[in-house]
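pasting for the record
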Amino acid sequence: MFNQTTKNTVTCSATGLLATSLRIAVLVFMLLPVSIASGASVLLRPDPQALGLKPGEQATLSIRVENAQDLYAWEIHLTFDPAIVEVADADASEPGIQIASGDAPKDSFVAVNQADNTLGQIDYALTLLNPAPPVSGNATLAIIQFKARNNGDSSLKLREGILATRDAQPIVFEWQEGALAVSETGEAPQPGQSASGANTLPDGQPAASETKTTNSNLTLIAAAGMGAVTFVAALITLVIVLRRKR
């Protein structure tokens, strides 16, 4: 049987535990939707998604980001069929084959910019520099000039891609696959299947940055669950103590 001092002590302890667990549960649940929603609707895509060319013709295709939030750096690795199209050099003053930057301000640094018309690959990486503000909303990240080689179809795939904030935090996004076609009529092909998960690697497995983001969400979910369990346990304890006190 509890004496009055013990009852008061247990009641205070249960009440304190109840208040603490409630704060934890509320805080985690408040943070959870923000963490999961962050970057969930960001889309990286070619514009146009489907590009048609006549033999020998040249046309522009942009890589666009939509619904970005605090984007400060990006790295994209694209693949295409070099038997169908090739990349036209955007800067003849530099060795090799380059593509053009998009809407990046002058306060930026291009770390990688190269295209390989033998392997059918494009590698491009850029980071903004202070005092440039981060990119939010819609923007053009890169511009590619494709030139038709031979009749046929080619997909434009993302072999690997990374979007990041100023603090080097990954931004989860989806990639919308593009389609290229060369024909006598120059008719645009049917667009490819959209929205493979990204950041992605060649074998379709999530990149490390995406895995970290996913694990972070799972950690928050687990923490929210533990907070809720602790809250319920504290509530039950408090009810029992109050009944015995009566």
